TrEMBL record:
Gene name per UniProt: fucP
Protein species of origin: Albibacterium profundi
Predominant location: membrane
Keyword Electron transport: no
N-terminal signal peptide: none
Cellular compartments annotated: Cell inner membrane
Membrane topology reported for the UniProt record: Multi-pass membrane protein
TM region positions: 12-33, 53-73, 80-100, 106-133, 145-166, 181-199, 234-256, 268-286, 298-317, 323-344, 356-372, 384-403
Keywords for this protein: Cell membrane, Membrane, Transmembrane, Transmembrane helix
Protein name: L-fucose:H+ symporter permease
Top-level taxonomic group: Bacteria
CDD domains xrefs: MFS_FucP_like (cd17394)
Amino acid sequence: MTTKPKFTEKKYLITLLCVTALFMLWGIAITMGDVLNKHFQNVLGVSKSESGLVQFSIFGAYAVMGIPAGLFMKRFGYKNGVLLGLSLYAFGAFLFVPAANAESFGYFRIALFILACGLATLETVAHPFVAALGNQRTSDQRINFAQSFNGLGTIIGPVIGSYFILRGSGIDGTLDSVKTLYIVIGCVIAAFALIFSTLKIPALSTNFEDENEAQIDKPIAPKKKLFQHRHFKWAIAAQFFNAAAQGGTWAFFINYGHEIMGFSDELAGYYFALSMVFMTIGRFAGTFLMKYLAPNKLLSIFAFANIVMCVIIGGAWGWPSFVALLMLNFFFSIMFPTIFSLGLKNLGPHTQQGSSFIVMGVVGAAFFPYFMGSIADHYGISQAYYLPIICYLIIFLFGSIFYKVKG
């Protein structure tokens, strides 16, 4: 008889909680970029296209830092990788002070780039770290559990940013609120780094093997090179298109609410925050459902569901279409962590390096919104939401066919 593997082991519990906290911390920073976008338009007088460089700075850092972070993690280990990420995160936050003093959009972009290099490092390290904190069979559950708190961070970020930054700009029209907030953020991240440095990490198995599941978890063809693993290459593609669809959906959510539903920008923004709540609910629901459904099957179901949602959204049928737009985030919920986990399966000593390449797939979010925007300019915002169907089709194929580990 085989024993059902545990979610994690007692010796890993504290480490798992600390690493899970990282997911929330970078979720806060990522979504605060949208708040900064609007604030820079108000205070620095930059155009909408120029303010879009905020996102390019953030996601560009993921493309630049993914491989170096993976190499650093492989050489110095998970713990030191986390400490590097937190250090860059804090340093970038503190650089907001001279940027605010100089009232320079260029300086802010540099600060954001360095901060995002820290975020990219944390993402590269944290996913395989969480996967290694227990049996490989439950790695999908652990990563989705940790990503649930990332979803919480994506809700907290806009709330904090809107209150302390946009509210501040409405009062005095200066960058003082930005400077103060990021000093606090830098101090919090630095304090967390200090706490994490004192943490004793139990011995981990690089390839997540479990002695009781030797036949199941044993790495297949351990001498294969990283890019000889077909499922890994498909995971990179799936992650690229997943990030692309997410970036495009979020970029034009408020436009859809305003142009199709007739909402004010403010009301559409509140609905956007609600959609983030849907995503968080979806991540917790996904973690639960994976007890009964294989992760790849759930991924395929959610990808197919979003294909249907996009068809309804593109139809511009009033509230049914807008509810479908809200539901996109619910079905988004498990995609990033599940693609990540499936892509890392049985990579053995290539796990850390593989993590860095999958993280780099986030760069899709830097480019796809441009193509959706072009369709929206020529054919209307609702028509633009047909384009992500291509993305979900790739994800569906990965979850239904190409996730399989080949010998």
